[in-house]
Specification:
The complex is a heterodimer of chains A (314) and B (474). Chain A is an all-alpha fold. Chain A contains 16 helices and no strands. With 474 residues, chain B is α+β, with helices and mostly antiparallel strands. Classes of the chains: A mainly alpha (314), B alpha+beta (474). The interface between A and B is medium-sized, with 24 and 21 residues.
């Protein structure tokens, strides 16, 4: 297929995934900030939402202070933020138009329908809490529809595989980013262990990757910081864990390699990361330092993106 | 201007044969049913994303072409005449182009003045003596047809470069079949759906000799900001070929290659929806970022076929248009089946004098204009507009032609105040491949939605209709 088509499919999937992640981040933050201070301490949760969205730098060129109003506006609706949900949907549609021939009708409809609704129903402006909640649900449903359509209707060929690469690379990045911002909560210092403050923070982390229920099913325990880390990093039955993303990245890259009769640096690099995740135990990770581990992972993940670009998309 | 011929009711008000069933059906219809279906159709168009961009209109970056749900119907007999005439016309266009870029017998016979060719900006000297596969220049032609009475069809314009609109022909039919299955069941409408197959086989049939047995075809688009982008992606999808932009292609060793995830891959036939000027910055406009550097060298080496060929603009130029009846006679030794609209060539002093005297009655067109821009419709124009055209004409007579204001035929159209006659034209698409020519029965009917308006161009607020050719006459 055309390199440009593959690139568009790859980015299309990334934009859709990112929009969903941002919506979840806002949703989780709204929940935490609705709690009385006694339960969550004095940290600025909106600041931390900006950090997990990787948008803090741009934000402060437009706003002086991070509060609900400004962060919601910047992460969801701002046209000045290249990664705002609005821009993600705009970009997803631009990419879709450019690769319509590679999309099924259902996928196009999911994106184009969302874009039309965004224009007609969700023109910017102050929203009530209730409207905001509906908007966040709307955004999450876009990715459900888009993904579901891709899964159910696409031919299993390179178009599908490249789109999955975008999805899993973005997802791994998002999960790693939230860990990067919240790692200190998962490496609890003595005075905080199990305290009520952290409990709600942990819940919030799990919510932003839609893993709260999953946690209970997997561990059948009350929330334990090290188990949360284990779930998000090493447990490959959780779709948003780093291990699961890398299982999928390796699988899709292998399929491309087989179809093209050629393996390359992307396959090797992804397999390297997957193997490291497979052979790690949480104890070792904590011992070496969770923060360092996550930092290294973020770098490796970004590098895989670059390698895929050089190998296939240019 | 005479009263227009109505295709449903005829000159005496009698119901014409082809419309009998439609008329019965309309009478059975509840009053708001058409409006309801119209809204449904609009919703479908928007969901599918069948939009076009209007240049210089930032507000409405993507607009819908209004769709009228009342079909235009023609009998098999009427179509048979049209089809024959269209094939004759396109055949002559191809022979004319071959001649202009080779022996130029038509010039030596004195039928067309030399300077009309050689001083014409759309004439491409690069094509002199250049052979194209099977002498086909115009693989896809869109011939604009108007009618003024039951018997006569006129060609209003030949489009031999990159005619657009065929996606509307196909999508209009799809949507009509979804909205009005009952109406289809009561007619025998000739299908149009095989157009993409016919197009693909025509394109494959003109692959260069150096191509493999299964030539690679690609559709070249200027990109998503082009007004016809939807059509480009729609056609690429139906054809099952890659939709490429200039940056996807690269020329090496006089071959055109596309950048794929598996490396570079040769392209044999390019259905290009990009004007000559933008094809290759090395040969044509150096500032074109849309084209492919070196494309012309690959083309000249015969390693890639461009459809349509480079330089076809000289055949659909409005100044050349007036000579088309002679062109048909010269190459085919036949009388033209489709008439030309009488045309005054303002470059000729007698014609100019007449035109200047009758500006308020004529339609004046720029020789190189298109899309309904830069045109004067005398009877509808203000004094000031007429005077400004008078100046333009005196300043550059050769840049204009003039035609009588034709009473374009009308078809019943759904309007705010119920069904009413509106003026229409028709653009059928003629495909020419190595083995045969095909015209899919029907075409794109454009309709001027404003009462009394004669301008059907979508850029000027025109709409479209589904065009039905009845398979057999009852």
């Amino acid at each position: 297929m055309l390199s440009r088509t593959a690139e568009n499919l790859y980015w299309l999937a990334r934009y859709v995934e990112r929009a969903e992640y941002l919506a979840r981040t806002i949703e989780a933050t709204l929940r935490v900030t609705a709690l009385p201070n006694a339960y969550v301490g004095k940290t600025n949760e909106w600041d931390s939402a900006l950090l997990t969205a990787g948008a803090a730098g741009g934000f402060y060129t437009h706003y002086a202070e991070a509060d609900e109003r400004s962060v919601v506006d910047y992460l969801l609706f701002s046209t000045a933020n290249p990664s705002s949900v609005r821009n993600c949907i705009e970009n997803a549609r631009l990419n879709s138009r450019a690769v319509r021939t590679a999309l099924t009708g259902e996928m196009w409809d999911a994106i184009n329908g969302a874009w039309i609704e965004l224009q007609e129903t969700w023109r910017a402006g102050p929203m009530t809490r209730e409207q905001l909640a509906r908007f966040l649900r709307f955004v999450q449903e876009i990715s459900l529809r888009f993904d579901g359509s891709a899964y159910r209707t696409m031919l299993r060929n390179d178009a599908y595989w490249f789109s999955r690469l975008g999805l899993h690379l973005e997802r791994a990045d998002n999960t790693a980013r939230i860990l990067d911002v919240k790692y200190h909560l998962l490496l609890p210092e003595k005075e905080h262990v199990g305290g009520p403050l952290d409990y709600y923070q942990w819940t919030s982390i799990l919510r932003s990757v839609s893993a709260l229920t999953a946690y209970h099913w997997v561990y059948r325990e009350t929330l334990k910081p090290w188990l949360i880390a284990d779930l998000l990093i090493l447990n490959d039955s959780l779709p948003r864990s780093l291990a699961s993303c890398y299982g999928n990245l390796v699988r899709n890259l292998d399929q491309i390699g087989v179809a093209y009769g050629r393996q390359g640096p992307a396959q090797r690099h992804a397999r390297g990361i997957r193997n490291r995740l497979e052979h790690s135990r949480m104890d070792d990770v904590f011992q070496r330092g969770l923060h360092e581990f996550i930092q290294e992972f973020l770098g490796d993940n970004a590098r895989l993106g670059e390698i895929i670009s050089t190998q296939y998309l240019n | 201007m005479a009263t227009a011929f109505d295709e449903m009711h005829g000159p005496g008000g009698e119901l014409r044969q082809a419309y009998q069933e439609l008329s019965r059906w309309l009478k059975e219809l509840p009053p708001d049913a058409l409006e309801y279906r119209r809204q449904e159709a609009e919703l479908l168009f928007r969901r599918i994303g069948i939009t076009f961009a209007v240049y210089g209109d930032a507000e409405a970056q993507e607009r819908l072409i209004p769709f009228d749900v009342v079909p235009r119907i023609m009998s098999a007999k009427e179509w048979a005449i049209l089809e024959k005439g269209l094939k004759q016309r396109v055949k002559a266009l191809n022979m004319f182009l071959r001649d202009i870029y080779h022996g130029r017998e038509i010039l030596r016979a004195g039928l067309i003045p030399d300077d009309l060719i050689f001083r014409n900006p759309v004439f491409r000297p690069e094509m002199n003596g250049q052979d194209v596969p099977h002498d086909i220049y115009v693989h896809i032609a869109g011939i604009d047809i108007v009618r003024v009475n039951a018997e006569n069809f006129f060609v209003l314009e030949d489009n031999a470069r990159t005619p657009s609109g065929v996606s509307y022909m196909l999508e209009n039919r799809e949507i009509m079949m979804r909205l009005f299955p009952d109406l289809f069941a009561r007619h025998r409408v000739a299908p149009v759906e095989r157009y993409p197959d016919e197009l693909l086989s025509a394109l494959a049939s003109v692959a260069p000799q150096s191509a493999s047995a299964e030539p690679t075809v690609a559709l070249l688009t200027p990109g998503i900001y082009n007004s016809a982008y939807y059509e480009h992606s729609f056609l690429a999808d139906k054809l099952g070929v890659e939709l490429v932009e200039g940056r996807d292609l690269v020329v090496k060793n006089e071959e055109v290659l596309m950048r794929t995830t598996e490396g570079l891959k040769r392209v044999d036939v390019i259905y290009r929806r990009l004007d000559d000027d933008f094809l290759d910055p090395l040969t044509f406009r150096p500032d074109s970022a849309l084209g492919v550097p070196g494309l012309m060298s690959a083309y000249m080496a015969g390693n890639v076929t461009l459809a349509n060929a480079v330089g076809t603009g000289i055949a659909d130029d409005k100044a050349i248009y007036s000579y088309m009846p002679d062109v048909v006679r010269f190459y085919l030794d036949e009388e033209p089946i489709l008439k030309n609209v009488p045309t005054w060539r303002c470059r000729e002093p007698d014609d100019l004098a007449y035109v200047l005297e009758h500006l308020d009655k004529l339609v004046v067109k720029e020789v190189h204009g298109s899309g309904g821009y830069g045109m004067l419709i005398g009877p509808a124009a203000t004094k000031a507009m007429i005077e400004s055209f008078r100046d333009k004409l005196k300043h550059d007579p050769a840049g204009f032609i003039a035609q009588p204001t034709l009473a374009l035929s009308t078809c019943p159209t759904s309007t705010a105040s119920g069904l009413a006659p509106r003026h229409v034209d028709l653009r059928p698409f003629v495909l020419t491949g190595r083995q045969n020519m095909t015209v899919v029965p029907g075409g794109l009917t454009r309709v001027a939605l404003q009462e009394g308006s004669l301008v059907v161009n979508s850029s000027q607020g025109g709409g479209t209709k589904d065009t039905w050719i009845l398979d057999e006459d009852a």
